[in-house]
Amino acid sequence: xxxxxxxxxxxxxxxxxxxxxxxxxxxxxxxxxxxxxxxxxxxxxxxxxxxxxxxxxxxxxxxxxxxxxxxxxxxxxxxxxxxxxxxxxxxxxxxxxxxxxxxxxxxxxxxxxxxxxxxxxxxxxxxxxxxxxxxxxxxxxxxxxxxxxxxxxxxxxxxx
Length: 160
What we know:
The chain is mainly alpha-helical. It is 57% helix and 12% strand. It has helices spanning 3-31, 64-84, 89-112, 129-146, and strands at residues 37-41, 45-52, 115-120. 30% of the residues are buried.
């Protein structure tokens, strides 16, 4: 896969993730009261509208500068990954997911100073679609990193 194709693919995926994330956040904000919780699967999955002033799990609440700097560093690192090596489908998808998720949460932090969260599993802190995309993207990058370098199919002529 060429760098140009990888970059374009990652940006298209990032835009799709960003649009879905922002759309779901606006839907929740427009149809629920802050703190309201709607059971989708009682005791397992609830739609709960909260505002999170911190990062993952609410850490660094009130530290907007650190969170913005961390987001900028993460975006720069992901772009470097796309431009530095030979891109694969896994790294392209992983980078696109991370970029879209990071952009979704970053826009919330810049415009509102906090992030809208709504997915409530009752055994985990409440999160959103951007968080899911970031976690999936990191998982794909880890899998790509663990994959052997020569992931091409072995030649039929290989000697025993």
